[in-house]
Amino acid sequence: MHFLRQGSIETVILRVVLAPLTRQRSYGNVPQPHAILYYSQRTTKGGLLIAEATGVSDTAQGYPQTPGIWTKEQVEAWKPIVNAVHAKGGIFFCQIWHVGRVSHKDFQPNGQAPISCTDKPLTPQIRANGVDVAQFTPPRRLTIDEIPQIVNDFRLAAKNAIEAGFDGVEIHGAHGYLIDQFMKDQVNDRTDHYGGSLENRCRFAHEIVEAVVNEIGADRVGIRLSPFASYMESGDSNPSALGLYMAESLNKYGIAYCHMVEPRMKTVGEKVECPESLVPMRKAFKGTFMVAGGYDRGDGNKAVVEDRADLVAYGRLFLANPDLPRRFELDAPLNKYNRDTFYISDPVVGYSDYPFLETTA
Ligand SMILES: Cc1cc2nc3c(=O)[nH]c(=O)nc-3n(C[C@H](O)[C@H](O)[C@H](O)COP(=O)(O)O)c2cc1C
Predict the structure, then answer these.
(1) Separation of 21 CA from ligand 1 center, angstroms?
(2) Contacts of 345 (CB under 8 A, 6+ apart)
(3) Average pLDDT of 101-123?
(4) DSSP label of 22
(5) Which keywords does this Swiss-Prot/TrEMBL entry list (predicted)?
(6) Distances from the Cα of 8 to the Cα of 4, 298, 308, angstroms
(7) Distance between CA atoms of residues 190 and 196, nearest Å
(8) Residue 358: strand, helix, or coil
(9) Do β-strands 133-134 and 125-126 pair in parallel, antiparallel, or remain unpaired?
(10) d(CA 143, CA 160)
(11) Residue 117 in contact with residue 150, Cβ under 8 Å?
(12) Would you call 236 helix, strand, or coil by DSSP?
């Protein structure tokens, strides 16, 4: 995978990445034909799209109607979606995901407890829609012998993603989900060699990166991290040290990119001003560095010009503007996003019905 180098002429357009966005429209955990239109609308020739978080196994799920990539049916269902993105010249990575303890027994096979690095329960949380309250079943702590199976699930998911036609995978190591649960000291209370020191807490993430790299090749692998985020009760006492340690230690794998969420993202969708910065991690990581979180056209371009990032991922703005790169190029006005339709299961409304520039006026 060859990403842009500094100074490329396509600076504005091709540095605009579609951030991974859960849309909860994959009925029965199977990607649906309506995703063909949604993703192809958001494709620009040479631009990178990251698919919504996609479960690696039947224990990976924690939300209704989110896609998976562990069955043959799911792999087949992704194919026409990936083909549509490729037909328009896009580069498409699949975000592979395990929610860990952010789940309920109703999402789990045989109603079993969700798995995590810990058995500490998660208190009920207000859902992203700001209204509903999500309940979680107390997790079961993985035994040390079980960890290789979960690593293997990520490896198989990556293999399946390549079979489905994706150009690569983004390992979801952010936002309080399983990999993040291992990394963060607010959650991880293990006393074996997966807990305690930074090196130990990051071991699970490293094992997954290594397994996935060995399976599909380093140039097809990215990882997303949110060291500063603390949602889902997954904070760390020293996020700068964690972020820096991961940025440095990932260098040995030569992966396609490292994608970090800005410290200013207090929740998945709320931006606050803060003094921390990703610049030390950007400097420590030797490959392509992607940032996300609260960016608009102006500060995204500024981040690239000031060499604080190679790529900028846009979430909510891209959700609401299928032609976001073109609008940025022209500095055109943007559609506003509607939070109420982010996670509804409608195959069209709030999904593929945001207007393109030509039809906006
Ligand atoms: C509707 C919605 C769904 C999201 N789903 C995911 C997801 O599946 N995986 C992920 O890593 N982040 C997810 N995020 C976070 C976004 O990728 C992004 O980091 C966040 O929206 C901040 O960027 P923005 O200010 O450009 O929207 C989601 C955010 C929103 C609003």
Answers:
(1) 5
(2) 24, 25, 27, 64, 65
(3) 97
(4) -
(5) Flavoprotein, FMN, NADP, Oxidoreductase
(6) 7, 18, 16
(7) 7
(8) helix
(9) antiparallel
(10) 26
(11) no
(12) coil
> From ligand 1's centre to the CA of 314, what distance in Å?
8
Using DSSP's 3-state secondary structure scheme, residue 143 falls into coil
pTM: 0.96
Q: Ligand 1: which residues within 6 Å by Cβ?
A: 19-22, 52-53, 95, 172, 174-175, 224, 261, 265, 268-269, 292-295, 314-317, 342
Q: Which of 63, 177, 231, 245 is catalytic?
A: 177
Please, which pLDDT band fits residue 268 given cuts at 50, 70 and 90? low
- pLDDT > 70 fraction of the chain, expressed in percent and rounded: 94
Per the document, the length of the chain is: 361
Residues 6+ away with beta carbon under 8 Å from 333 = 327, 360
Q: What angle do CA 14, 18, 20 make, to 5 degrees?
A: 150
Please say whether the beta carbons of 66 and 24 come within 8 A.
yes
Please give the Cα distance from 107 to 21 (Å, whole number): 20
- Report how far apart, in Å, the C-alpha atoms of 102 and of each of 202, 209, 231 are: 19, 22, 11
Task: Check if 337 is active-site.
Answer: no
Instruction: Compute CA 163 distance to the chain's CA centroid, rounded to the nearest angstrom.
Output: 20
Burial class (CB in 10 A: 0-12, 13-18, 19+), 33: exposed
**150 CA to centre of ligand 1 in angstroms:** 24
d(CA 45, CA 179): 32
Half-sphere exposure for 221 (CA within 13 Å, toward CB): 26
The pLDDT score that the predictor gives to residue 359 is: 58
Given the CA of residue 294, which atom of ligand 1 is nearest to it?
A: 25
Smallest Cα–Cα separation from 287: which of 315, 248, 314, 261? 248
pLDDT of 4 over the 70 cut: no
Tokens for 6? 């500094």
Q: Coil, helix or strand for 207?
A: helix
Per residue in 164-205, pLDDT tens? 999 999 999 999 999 999 999 999 999 999 999 999 999 999
| Token output for 151 | 């690593």
For residues 336 and 320, the answer to whether their CB atoms sit within 8 Å is yes
Q: Sketch the domain layout of the chain as residue ranges.
A: 17-112+144-330
